[in-house]
Every structure is written in C-alpha cells, then in structure tokens.
What we know:
The protein has helices at 2-9, 59-69, 81-91, 118-127, 133-136, 151-171, 178-187, 204-209, 213-226, 255-263, 267-276, 283-290, 296-323, 325-341, and strands spanning 17-23, 50-56, 96-104, 109-117, 142-143, 175-177, 231-238, 245-251. It is α+β, with helices and mostly antiparallel strands. The strands form two sheets. Strands 3-4-2-1-5 form a five-stranded mixed beta sheet. It starts with a helix and ends with a helix.
Amino acid sequence: MLDLYRRTVARFPLGSVSYMFAYGSGVKQQEGYGKVGNGKNLRPPPGTVVDLVFCVRDAQGFHAENLHRHPDHYSALRYLGPNFVAKYQERLGAGVYCNTLVPLPDVGITIKYGVVSQEELLEDLLDWRHLYLAGRLHKPVTNLVNPSDNPPLKAALDRNLVSALQVALLLLPEKFTAYGLFHTIAGLSYKGDFRMIFGENKQKVHNIVSPQINDFFALYQPSLGQLSDYVAVNMKGQESGSRKPAIIFEQDKSSSATCQHLRQLPRELQKRLQRNAACRGDYTQVVNHLSMASQLPEVLQASVNDIVWRSSVTQSIKNIPSAGLLKSLAYSYRKAQKTFAV
C-alpha cells in the first residue's frame, strides 16, 4: 500500500510539504468495508476514497504549482488564482482547502485531499481551535512524511494525543476497558459533528475502533506512559456482554487528579468550559468548581461538542465552492450510500 501512496503523491508539488498523511476507510480497516491490505501490491477496498492531507509551509506556493500541474483538480475557484485559493484556505472554516473526488486512472484510485498550512495545523493540535484535523489525528493514520523530522510538529502531534487521553479520562469512570477508552477518544471529533445527524453511519466510531484496537494501543502507548501516575492497567477481564478478553484500566478519580487534567486542557476547550460551567470566574476558579462537580462529564462533552459543531458546519459550507456543486452532491451521495449499505 505504501508504494501505491508514494506513486499517488509523487505527482504533487512536495517542496513545501512538511507533513503528509492518509486516513479513512480506504486506508485503515473499518467494520463494514472491504479488507484493507498491507502488502506491496494490495489496493484500497473497491468504492472507497483515499483521503490525504498535505501540511505545507507555503500555501500560496503549493497552490500555484498545483494549479499549474492539475487545474482539473480544482473547481471554478481556480480562475481566481493561487493567492485567492490560499486565502480561502486559511481564513475560512477549519483552515483546510479540500479537492474532492479526484480520479487517478494511472493508479486506479479516487482521492480526496486537503491542504493546510503548518501554522494552522499546529494551532489546531495544541489549542483545539477547530478540533478538525486534530480530531482526525486522534485516530490511527498512515504517515507519508515522518513527523519526527519536524520537531515542533512532532511535539504538537504528541500533545494532541495526551490532550485526547486526558479528556477521555475525565469522561470515563474509575474503571474502563481499552475499547471504552479508544471509543471515547475516537468519538470526541464525531459527537458534535452535524454530519452525524445525516450522511454518516451512526456506528461510525465503533466501526473505526473495533478492528483497530491494536493500532490505537500503539498510538497511545507513549501518552499512557506519560500519564502513568493517573492511569494504569488493572487486570484482564471481559467486555460487557461478550466472552472476549478485555484489558481493564483503572484511573485516579481524585479531585487533585481531575484538577491536573483540567489545567492542561487545550486553550479553546478551556474557553468553552468557562462559558458552559455553572461557576463564574477565571479558569482556576472554574477548575476548582468542576473538579468536585458531578456534572463534569456532561459539561466537558458539551464543550467539546461546541468546538466540533462550529468547525464541521463552517468547513462543510466552505467545501461546497472548493469542490464545486456537482462534486459536493456526488460526494454526499457516496456518503449516504455507504451509510445505508453498512
């Protein structure tokens, strides 16, 4: 599969690309879809779209060269030039410009790709300003550029995972299974998404987590180690209603542990908590109040949902002109087909 991805991305201007990843049902195994292979010559499941994200240092330069190479990837916005496209990318929605349903006959796949500036991605990873690409990166993806070669980006990616784990711990009870943990994490960027009302399979989070438990473990092992003072593997048990073995975690639910997690939450989430909490005052006062409040999980989930709802609505509206009306309708139709087929 990696050979296929390399042949796919080789056609793009990669000079300013600082990070690149592939994700989605065409890349990572999900329940209800064809098998995703790992062999060199294996392909994505039939009918799936391979989702790519290019993180770039120079958005205008990337679009200028990409418009020259692939004008047919763009909607009528291409006639307004690369400067307009870059500003449209960076100033609206979640800071991502998407080209949708791009057929690549030479490799036999269809792709959707988003372009984001490194500055915007760093802000989303660290502060959860949009919880858009940060949410995508809560789940396993296939890196096509090693983020370890970019220390600021690698640090932000790691911080994003720790933040997701801390929010999940605040939402979960004292004891929980590995499936419960990763289902909670994967659901953070879906529960507030307006597209979950229509167009997305309601079992989407389960379909992502269930076949990827091992990938989630590998992704979150460093974060679990970093928070080992607050959460640990307690024992092996069984999933509720199943005979399958399950790893049981146990966490510290003391008010001091809760305060520690709340103090380290991303900045945008802190702002939402201040707005949604019954307590009024600065964030330190809100933390002290919430650490002893039985309603903390509800307030926290509502605050996460606020961020996701706003970005999912604005980015979806933004994607209509960038994709073009016909492609937007075709993409929505594909989504609906997958929803009712699964």
